Amino acid sequence: MKNLYWFRARKHGIGWVPVTWQGWLVLLMYVIALVYVFFNHDYSPSVQIIWTHFWPKIILLTLVLIIVTYIKGEPTTWHKRKS
Predict the structure, then answer these.
(1) 8 forms bridges with which residues in the sheet?
(2) Within 10 A of 16 (CB to CB), how many other CB atoms are there?
(3) Would the CA dihedral through 7, 80, 15, 61 be positive or negative?
(4) pLDDT tens digit string along 42-74?
(5) What is the full DSSP assignment across the chain?
(6) Distances in Å between the alpha carbon of 33 and those of 5, 37, 49?
(7) Considering only CA atoms, which of 1, 34, 29 is closest in space to residue 18?
(8) Helix 21-39 / helix 55-72 crossing angle, nearest 10 deg
(9) Is residue 79 predicted with pLDDT exceeding 60?
(10) Where is pLDDT greater, at 77 or 74?
């Protein structure tokens, strides 16, 4: 079976672009999770609540997305050294 990447490396810049239905599904799940966190957030005026409950969830979701795209995406050219 051919090694099929879910995400294609961008030609310019850093990152990946979904190219298969699995990649698009991962991206859709990420957006749905962000919307869920946003609408289920306690809108208390306390800044401590925002820094301890809202932002860690957003950062964790983003890290999971980056890890999945790194594992299931094609290798990027920005980490390769030129000889």
Answers:
(1) 17
(2) 22
(3) positive
(4) 666 677 777 777 888 999 999 999 999 999 988
(5) -----SEEEPSSSS-EEE-SHHHHHHHHHHHHHHHHHHHTS---S-HHHIIIIIHHHHHHHHHHHHHHHHHHBPPPSTTPPP-
(6) 23, 6, 19
(7) 29
(8) 180
(9) no
(10) 74
At 21-49, the pLDDT tens digits run 999 999 999 999 999 988 887 666 677 77
Taking the C-alpha atoms of residue 73 and residue 71, their distance in angstroms, rounded to an integer, is 6
Q: Which one, of 15, 14, 19, 16, lies nearest residue 6 by Cα?
A: 19
Both tokens assigned to 78:
């920005």
For the chain, what is the largest distance between any 2 Cα atoms, rounded to a whole number of angstroms? 55
pTM of the model: 0.78
Whole-angstrom distance, CA of residue 44 vs CA of residue 57: 16
Q: Are 34 and 58 in contact (CB under 8 A)?
A: yes
Locus of tokens 């995406």: 73
